[in-house]
Design goal:
It is a single chain. The protein is of the alpha+beta class. It is built from eight helices and twelve strands. It has a six-stranded antiparallel β-sheet with strand order 1-3-4-7-5-6, sandwiched between helices. The chain has a four-stranded antiparallel β-sheet with strand order 10-11-9-12, with no helix packed on it. A two-stranded antiparallel ribbon has the order 2-8. Helix 5 packs parallel to helix 6 and helix 7 runs antiparallel to helix 8. The chain is rod-shaped. The relative contact order is 0.15.
Amino acid sequence: AIGGRGGSNQMRMGLPVAAASTALVVLPRRIPVASLLSTKSSMTSDSVGAAFTTIREMVSVEKEIKKSKFIAIAGPISSEQSAQQFLSQVRDPRATHNCWAYKVGDQHRSSDDGEPSGTAGKPMLSAISSSGLDRVMVVVIRYFGGIKLGTGGLVRAYGGVTSDCLKTASTHLVKSKVQMGVEVTFDLLGLVYNQLQSCQAQDIKEDYDTGKDGTTMVSFKVDFDQVDQLEDAIKSNCRRDLVFFKSI
């Protein structure tokens, strides 16, 4: 769990948050980002698209509104399973509410966690959508301060702190990789490798068990927007009508 009703609990967990009047703080990576933002997702490639922008690491913002403390924590995720993992890591069972929302492609969910229906999860999800970010989750922890905010006040508080939190995050563009392969004769390997390097292909492997003398299957991964350019370049330089195999 993160935080508590006093500053000592926050420091004990080693997760500093930013006060409303101070600079916003990037949280240490208690959850490995690689495990949250895995290329192996339960979502389909169609649901997440060929490219998306997400946040690099967890960030947190703290605000006090009419004596209630709101702590928003955002992090990158890859699926519903990693969203559940993120929630279990950052929620505080001692807080009044642990509201949350996440978006992974066209898959999205949110929770008011006891707040009046539509006053927490929905405005949080709207803030995520408005940010243009994908594969991201935000958890807002609220400690009730004794003054009710009303329906409109809650919507503004949860949506506002979510938006502020996401604005502080460092973002990056992620492009999906396409697994490709092409069968070539040995004399063409040099030309093929030159083109693979120019397109920054990854995981390049050779398989000589093709059943044909003097040939090998070269497999590799390349950014989705480099596929057509790479095919054309290899065919042009090799001057052969080569057949490419592709899968996402």
